[in-house]
């Protein structure tokens, strides 16, 4: 018992050291290239017309933006490595079919994470800023409004959008994992839709500014992803039941013909 506990603690220590080393090296690298990272986040806004640029209103705002951007980028870069270390720690205790199933969940999680991140960064963020820019910029004889966003606020709002996308990417994986491991049935999901709506609202309220429209826009994708996953899971369950029923019918026919 003591030997097994020491082995587990030693493995935890090794994985923790690797994660710490990877996080430290990645953070310093991200901070070294923080200006390039901010440029990537600001590129959708800088491509807009009418001499778009950012402003700073505090002495420490630029430094805070560099540090915050480096930390968030470090998390995104280290997340696959950290997931791999956790996988290396947990997978030896699994056998046979369970190990194969966990590997499928792991690959599905990584695929959804990078797919949602790519779609959000390449399509959602540019369209959001394009819409907000032309809504917030007005030039008439009576009124002139020119948008000059603060670099820190812009970066934080862009990061919130990316975080919401990351959460949406893992919702299907969690739902499929619970269904496959028989932790929750499809019937339970369908009967408790209101709790998923509350979960979507709380998640949107946590990651978006205190504005009702922003929270609604952030809540809808999360809830739609949950509903789509439940719908697909329901289709898969019906197909499995039909296959089992057809197999049972075929077996009964073979037994009757043999008799």
Characterization of the model:
- The chain crosses the membrane at residues 12-34, 63-84, 105-125, 161-181, 193-209, 215-236.
- One of its GO terms (cellular component) is TAT protein transport complex.
- Keywords: Membrane, Mitochondrion, Transmembrane, Transmembrane helix.
- Strands 1-2 form a two-stranded antiparallel sheet.
- The protein is mainly α and 259 residues long.
- The model has no long low-confidence stretch (mean pLDDT 78).
- The protein is flat, with a radius of gyration of 24 Å.
- Strand 1 (138-139) and strand 2 form a beta hairpin.
- It has helices at 2-32, 34-46, 61-90, 96-136, 151-180, 186-191, 193-207, 212-258, and strands spanning 138-139, 144-145.
- It contains eight helices and two strands; from the N terminus they run H-H-H-H-E-E-H-H-H-H.
- The protein has one domain.
């Amino acid at each position: 018992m003591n030997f097994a506990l020491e082995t587990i603690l030693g493995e935890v220590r090794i994985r923790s050291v690797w994660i710490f080393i990877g996080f430290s090296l990645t953070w310093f690298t991200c901070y070294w290239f923080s200006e390039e990272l901010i440029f990537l986040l600001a590129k959708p806004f800088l491509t807009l017309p009418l001499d778009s640029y950012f402003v700073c209103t505090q002495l420490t705002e630029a430094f805070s933006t560099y540090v915050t951007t480096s930390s968030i980028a470090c998390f995104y870069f280290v997340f696959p490595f950290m997931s791999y270390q956790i996988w290396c720690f947990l997978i030896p205790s699994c056998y046979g079919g369970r190990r194969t199933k966990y590997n499928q969940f792991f690959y599905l999680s990584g695929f959804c994470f990078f797919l949602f991140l790519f779609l959000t960064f390449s399509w959602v963020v540019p369209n959001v800023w394009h819409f907000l820019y032309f809504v917030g910029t007005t030039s008439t004889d009576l009124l002139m409004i020119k948008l000059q966003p603060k670099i820190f606020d812009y970066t934080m709002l862009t990061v919130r959008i990316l975080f919401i996308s990351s959460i949406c990417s893992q919702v299907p994986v969690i739902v499929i994992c619970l269904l496959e491991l028989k932790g929750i049935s499809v019937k339970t999901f369908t009967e408790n839709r209101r709790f998923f709506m509350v979960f979507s609202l709380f998640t949107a309220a946590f990651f978006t500014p205190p504005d009702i429209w922003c929270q609604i826009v952030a809540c809808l994708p999360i809830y739609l992803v949950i509903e789509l996953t439940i719908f697909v899971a329901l289709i898969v369950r019906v197909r499995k039941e039909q296959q089992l029923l057809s197999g049972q019918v075929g077996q009964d026919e073979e037994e009757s013909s043999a008799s």
